Amino acid sequence: MKLVEMRISDRRVLKLIRQWLEAGVMEDGVVHRTVAGTPQGGVSSPLLSNIYLHVLDKLWMRHSAPLGTLVRYADDFVVVSPTRSKCMEAEQRIRVILARLGLELHPDKTRRVELYDGKEGFDFLGCHLHKRLSGTIWEKKRQRVYFLHRWPSPRSMQKIRSRVKELTPRGRCHADLRDVIADLNPVLRGWGAYFRTGNAAKRFNQLDDYVRRRLLQLRVKRKGRHLRPGEVERWTRESFWNLGLHRLRGTVRYPEAAQCGGSN
């Protein structure tokens, strides 16, 4: 709150923020009080995290910038260092700064990866980032180079599949298929808009196939014994797209750097 008070003097606003911090979280109808920090999932949590960790940004730029580039969003961040030794030193500097703030790195989420020549990758903000070999030879260097690509992480893929499954239960087999599609479209459109600027073509095709299988199961369940031979094959992805289903395929928009490296 001291950092907030440095920019805000209105007591009513400060009181509201304190009430946010003390409100707790309701899960399955049970309220869990917040002991410390911001409520997980609270509407104010990202903003307050940015305010609190702005100290990290300032100290890093002032004292540790030569060790690597710090990229942070709320309480998620990565540091990209040019060498292994600088990476290890950067981690120690981060630990020292966070200790001053009363924080510590999450042991399960903190790891060092080697991006060189596509050896390893990492997940950040729902994306998996990995270097891929260019499909063309650069004329200036006359050699193939690696570009950093990103696509939906396995966890992001699992979450969207789970959401699609929730919206297409077997019990909706007798519902109008257009109504089911109307429920799916906002979810698919929003998810696709977030990932479409990366190298997500392969994952978009996979999700299109999954949605088609879920809708096909509803059709088969509804037909039951009256299902005719060859009818399943006629229900292609295009058939559902013609009913208004949002199509992810073909919506990827590669940034200039990703275009140079090719698509996945």
Please give a structural write-up.
The protein has 264 residues and is of the alpha+beta class. It contains ten helices and seven strands. It has helices at residues 2-5, 11-22, 45-64, 84-100, 154-167, 177-195, 201-223, 231-234, 237-242, 256-261; strands at 25-27, 30-32, 69-73, 76-80, 121-124, 127-133, 146-152. It has a three-stranded antiparallel β-sheet. A hairpin with a 2-residue loop joins strand 1 and strand 2 (30-32). Helix 3 packs across helix 4. The longest helix has 23 residues, at 201-223. The protein is flat.
Q: Give the CA-CA distance, first to last residue.
A: 46 Å
Uncertain parts:
257-264
In which range does the helix fraction lie?
Answer: 40-55%
Overall structural class, as computed from helix and strand content, comes to alpha+beta
How many H/I helical runs?
A: 10
Rg, please? 24 Å
Which band does the percent of strand residues land in?
5-15%
Spatial order of strands in the largest sheet: 5-6-7
| Largest sheet, strands/sense/barrel | 3 strands, antiparallel
Beta-strand segment tally: 7
Q: What coarse outline follows from CA principal-axis ratios?
A: flat
Order of helices and strands: HHEEHEEHEEEHHHHHH
Give the mean pLDDT: 83
